[in-house]
Amino acid sequence: MFHQHLTAHRTIFLVHAALLVCCAVLPEVARSEDSEPAPAKLPNIVYIMSDELAYYELSHMGNSKIHTPNIDQFAAEGIRFTQALAAAPVCAPLRCALMTGKHMGHASVRANDGGTPLRADEPTIASMLKALGYATGGFGKWGAGGRGSTGVPELHGFDVFFGYYDQVHAHSYYPPYLVRNSAEVPLPGNRGGRSGQTYSHYRIMEEGLEFIRDNKDRPFFCYLPITPPHGMYDIPADDPAWDLYRNDAWMQDPAVPQDAKNYAAMVSMVDRNVKEVLDLLRELGLEENTIVFFTGDNGGQDRFKTKEHPRGFFGPNVDPVTGVEFRGGKGSLYEGGLRIPFLVRWPGRIEPGRVSDLLCYQCDVFPTLAELTGGRAPADVDGLSILPELLGPAAVGRQQPQHDHLYWEYRDQRAVRMGNWKGIRTKPSRDWELYDLSVDISEAHDVAEQHPDIVRRIERIAAQEHTPVLAGHYTNRQLHEKDRRAKWGDVLPETQAK
Fold first, then answer.
1. Mind listing the domains of the chain with CATH numbers?
2. Per DSSP, what are the bridge partners of residue 163?
3. Helix 69-77 to helix 258-283 angle, to the nearest 10 degrees?
4. Mean pLDDT in the chain?
5. What are phi and psi of 343, to 5 degrees?
């Protein structure tokens, strides 16, 4: 859908790529005694994606219940995007879009069944960076192809991936095993379900940090699609995150469900993980040569609803300052299903404390990292580079381009965004709805009848952007099905025990 942008900027990109790598983006090259320049050092990349952490669930956004001091500081030291959107409203499709740069009309993974795989020949961010000499590691939830399929991460550019390949497996923090490059890694004392001896997230973060240590002397891409706070809301009782809530009255209220309390502590655990990553980069002397992204994956879910809190106990889609709401939530193509937190930090390169209203989405990450590193994104990606917005037009040598339109599909839903116009069709049998987000961010007033010309343009875009899905395949589904059963292992859930 953005082929015209990419074609227009292809020549510019080729001219500037070498300059970006050697001068504008990267540290100044060292000089040897004979004045020959030494090879420029490529920037390290850390991409942290917290599963289902919502736009308004961070304390710098005004949330009064959840404590995220380290993420708040991260935002103050980098750039915060107000119009960053998920490429899909659910886990698996958006992970495919992120990795491949393809929107939902072109992506190979459009179902959220946890196992639909990437095709064997699909380039990814990791495969591009690996070709440039990067160490590539992923730690957390993959979701773009189960074991025994063409979509496993080690076939798509990752030197190592440790965690969960399947989304159902990822619901439990006490599974009997995790997976490293398709091999099972036992977790002592675990049988599945909601209790055990080895908390999986601790192991995942340990391996992610160790990957950074092991590759401190070469460029690395550390992808951290961590599971908290999604899944079963479980966290050890002695986790340090609980200390942040010792004086919170709501945390002592017996009327508040324990899962809601666990959820808040899990978000604060993620907050601590962000600090651990940044502290390690400082310790290793890598902070000034590492760009760090922190994001959610899809829009928030209105969890823990009560009469007093009809949009969820933590109000993930409600501005706590103004009370203005995003319509819908996870699984929906209204703003509540798409709006995500998106922060980027790079000391000395990204001006601190910036807030950007640039309209962007996860498909943009691939071309952005390609321009940053001098790599080559496929010509048919649907995203565009947001590097000028991150580093400034002067550093990059060009102005930030804008999307002509964005496109989404999920199940029967379709949506198109053109500037502030948002068109949505929730079912094939229904008419297109139209909203002007500049005055109606809650998508409460359908103005389709007043703007038939805009609706016709949206219909044409939706028709041209959809192609039949072509997913990868399995050679053997047995290991994938075993991973799905490992959610409970030999611990039968109460609902099935009755």
1. 44-404 (3.40.720.10)
2. 140, 179
3. 50
4. 92
5. -125, 145
Burial of 343 (0-12, 13-18, 19+ CB in 10 A): buried
Q: Is the peptide bond before 229 cis (omega within 30 degrees of 0)?
A: yes
Q: What is the pLDDT of residues 327-382, one digit of tens each?
A: 999 999 999 999 999 999 999 999 999 999 999 999 999 999 999 999 999 999 99
The kind and range of the H/E element at 360 are strand 360-361
Torsion 259-260-262-263 (CA) sign: positive
Which helix (H) or strand (E) covers residue 406, if one does?
A: strand 406-410
How confident is the model over 208-239, as pLDDT tens digits?
Answer: 999 999 999 999 999 999 999 999 999 999 99
The answer to whether the beta carbons of residues 381 and 367 sit under 8 Å apart is: yes
Residue 148: pLDDT over 50: yes
| Paired residues of 415 in beta bridges | 408, 424
pTM over cut 0.85: yes
Task: Give the C-alpha separation, 150 to 476, whole Å.
Answer: 10
**Which among 205, 175, 184 is positioned nearest to 50, based on CA atoms?**
205
